[in-house]
Specification:
The protein is mostly helical. It folds into 2 domains: 55 residues, Arc Repressor Mutant, subunit A, CATH 1.10.10; 155 residues. Helix content is 67%, strand content 3%. The protein is built from 11 helices and 2 strands, in the order H-H-H-H-H-H-H-H-H-E-H-H-E. A two-stranded antiparallel ribbon has the order 1-2. The chain is elongated. The termini are far apart.
């Protein structure tokens, strides 16, 4: 019964999600070494002892962070490869949704995890497993549209390693410029040009209208 209570308790103890959100913020802003109980308690305005209502120790909190990353970034990317699409070009646009929508794929989280992996063999193994699962999902997407395995494998690696390169260098790009490049990325990655209706659906999802030139910059995206 206590496990059910832990997930919903608020007030002087805070909440499990509140502690996890604070840990996420510390990880993405300053690295894993700052994810510690006392600084988090201070950030939340809570007592140190309230942390232990939700987590046995710091290691359990770190494990919860890893699981949040796995479910969000790997889980959503795999789901996007499996979404309905008229063609491989539109399937590629579905994957590009990840790079443009932080609710689907959190590039800051990804960068922080890969930085953490440089000092943790355990996290490095989590990254390795995620990389394989994501590439395999991309391969299955291409195979679904009739590509031979070897060609699907090379295309999947090219797409994935390009995106990881963008994330690892913490690239920031202008939205309008990125959107203008979308059709060429699709053609290069798939060998097919996206149809107008496929591009229109994609642009609509992201609130973009061709010919507009917003100055907003957003982080790390392959498609641009």
């Amino acid at each position: 019964m206590k496990e059910q209570t832990k997930a919903t308790e608020t007030g002087w103890r805070g909440s499990l999600e509140g502690w996890l959100d604070a840990a996420y913020e510390s990880l993405t802003e300053s690295g894993v070494d700052t994810v510690r109980v006392m600084p988090l308690a201070k950030k939340l305005g809570l007592s140190r002892t309230s942390f232990y209502w939700f987590f046995k120790d710091r290691e359990e909190l770190l494990a919860a962070l890893i699981e949040r990353w796995r479910l969000k970034n790997t889980g959503n990317l795999i789901e996007q490869t499996e979404c309905y699409a008229e063609s491989i070009a539109e399937a590629m646009l579905n994957v590009f949704d990840c790079w443009l929508n932080p609710q689907l794929f959190d590039s800051q989280f990804e960068f922080a995890m890969r930085s953490w992996a440089l000092q943790s063999a355990e996290v490095s193994e989590h990254i390795r497993v995620a990389d394989i699962a994501r590439r395999e999902a991309l391969i299955r997407m291409f195979v679904r549209f009739g590509y031979e395995f070897d060609g699907a494998d090379v295309r999947a690696r090219t797409i994935y390693l390009t995106q990881i390169g963008y994330i690892s260098t913490n690239t920031r790009e202008d939205v309008a410029e990125r959107m203008r490049r979308i059709p060429e990325y699709v053609k290069i990655f798939t060998g097919q040009e996206p149809r107008a209706r496929e591009l229109n659906r994609f642009y609509f999802r992201h609130g973009y209208v061709m010919d507009e030139a917003p100055s907003l910059e957003v982080p790390t995206a392959t498609a641009g």
